[in-house]
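Protocol step 4 of 6: record predicted structures for both targets in the notebook before any analysis. Target 1:
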Amino acid sequence: MSAAAWIELITSGLITGGIYALVALGLNLQYGLMRILNIAHGEFLMVGAFLTWWVQSSFGLSPLLMVPVSFALLMALGLAIHFLCFRRLTATSPNLDIFEARGLMVAFGLMFLVQNFVSWQWGGDLRGYDYLTEPVKLGQAQFAGNKLLVFGLALLFSGALIVLMRMTLLGKGVRALMQSPVGAQLVGIDTRRLHPLMFGIGLGLSGVAGCLLSMAYTISPSMGEPYTVTALIVITLGGFGSMGGALAGGLLLGVVEAIGMHYTNPSLKALLSYTVFIAVLLLRPEGLFTRKTRKA
């Protein structure tokens, strides 16, 4: 295989991995901070994709305009869902284990509710539109313009979240809560404000990911669930609670899938992902990009 073909193959994997990372960052934020395993996360990605498709096909507006709109709408929806569902679960659950179990059941309900609502509203057919499909040459390699744009924006939003977590007072409060919820509350960090805000930001990122996906791929009401599973694999690769690990894990998984499918069969994509997932769980359960903690 030529050098240009290798560049195209790896870049294709990185483009897919950028979306994986963006979805995983939102889910990692929710689980790492609040222990909410939101398995409906991918369904909100699907909502962002369908909203972008609907606006583009109905009004002819550029999907780029929907990137901030998708983030804002899905963030507002996330705030509402946290207020209506998870805030009450926090108040009524006697311990963290029961809260996680109840939260998982609520997320199951949300998954089917959102998926069926979109199917009822727009039908179950594949949808899509043409946007920046002209090829772009980079050296000897060639890529679709929309996929390069998707990759760039995915990295931009992922990087912005990581900078927010590492460089701001808000981010330091979130990381403190992830490391020691009791200790963080003792020094005055208000969970009643941070929890809904971070849950909303997590769903906002899923809406952005859906918006970006719609620019380059066909979409359907059933597209969300596979991305939730992939996000869980990425979080396992990067380490639960690690934002930088989620970004690195997403990019790595995208490249592994691209190379694996090239040398095997595209239908084996899920098999490749689950093989990596199980191997990491067995050999390095703390994640590939986190330091091992020493036992006392």
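Target 2:
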Amino acid sequence: MSWIDRLERRIGRWRSGGLDGTWVVAVSGGGDSVGLLRVLHQLAPAVGLRLSVAHLDHGARGEAARADAAFVAELAASLGLPFDLGRWQPSRAGHFEADARRARYGWLVETARARAAAVVAVGHTRDDQAETIVHRIVRGTGLHGLAGMPRVRVLGGDPRITLVRPLLDVPRRALRDHLAALGQPFREDETNADLTRTRSRIRLDLLPKLEAEYNPRVVEALVRLGRLAAASDRAIAAEVRAMAKAATITVAPDCLVLKHAFLSSLPGHLRIEVLRRLWRRAGWPEGEMSARRWRRLSALVQQQEVPRFEIGAGVAVSTQQFFLVLRRSPVPAAAAPAVESRGPIELKVPGAAAVPWAGGRVLATIDPAEPSDESIDRDRLAFPMSIRPPLPGDRFQPLGMGGRSTPLADFFRGRQVPRDRRQRTPLVCDQLGIVWVVGHRIADRVQVTEQTRQTLGLRWELQP
């Protein structure tokens, strides 16, 4: 069976599993993305795909970039496909690659929404996967990073948009051979040959040496390692979820109360993963938590008594009776932007609360007949409720993500909320975290279900 036949079967399984058939194909003009477009266009009638083409000019290569855009536009027209062109300009020196990637995916999410598409397809190949794994090994990674790029994932924190990598099992050489057979040209990005970039050195220097001097099938070996790591990571994640649930007494924005004896009984590496998971559930920032600090926290758990120990990120650890308590102090006003110094505003239920810094008010009603922007399950709330602006390290569990949390900053980026508006977006919270990002989405944990007995209506009104 050829790789194209295998690809057709995979897409068919995706479609049978509920993946929508309206796809935006990201095409840079290079061989990988052009190959992806031509193959998807060939398979579209058989697997029920409706395609459009998207190209983002990253604003860094002048005339060459404009020529790339013209090439992709002409290719889309020749295939009879709709075309979207976006433009972006770098704004920070030394951060181009990270900023460009963030801008590209953010723009693709918006393009997908405008096209009423549920899927964005990108042209990463098996070789890209191997390069990614090597890159992460060189920088230092754990099991999760060793798994490489996922074949399917939610894009931009929006559960309605799925990113797919259909070619992740296809060698780049096979894709180039297919283009040659079609007589299909493509563009070469000269920056790919820039050996000052680590990724380029891995592609053009390190991997060829490994193939020539150590293992001619090193790419296959690396990708196989990634699959094994991904399978192991999924198994460990399931185990950690169960352990975290068993260890938890309380999870709140300012404290974690955990079963000390249970945590002490876990193997060290699993104990760290459980603590990480619960730390994220509390919505606490991880930037200060180095590997050394996680090991230190794990070691503290094994002690019978911990009077009080500052572990980092404003979190203090102590033991109280049979419990391990992690308590986070409020962010100091001097270390936070001005908007963050605005304390939480009490929201009574039923009742209303003015939010002066956002120019409106939030209304909470228990009468189902009253108009509301959102209706939530009142019994799933941990009262009292309050309204506050976003804080550094905030995490959110958007409706539709099955209870998985995402950094609030990523959620805002995925919805293309301008930076100056993010800090003026009110957050309705209870004692367990964010309930409603006003004007955007409620939390998954408070959605109304068939078991809901009492609802709470929430409404936002602008003040004149």
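Step 5 preliminary note on target 2. DSSP finds 14 helices and 22 strands in the chain. Residues 332-341 have pLDDT under 50 and may be disordered.
Proceed to step 6 after PI sign-off.
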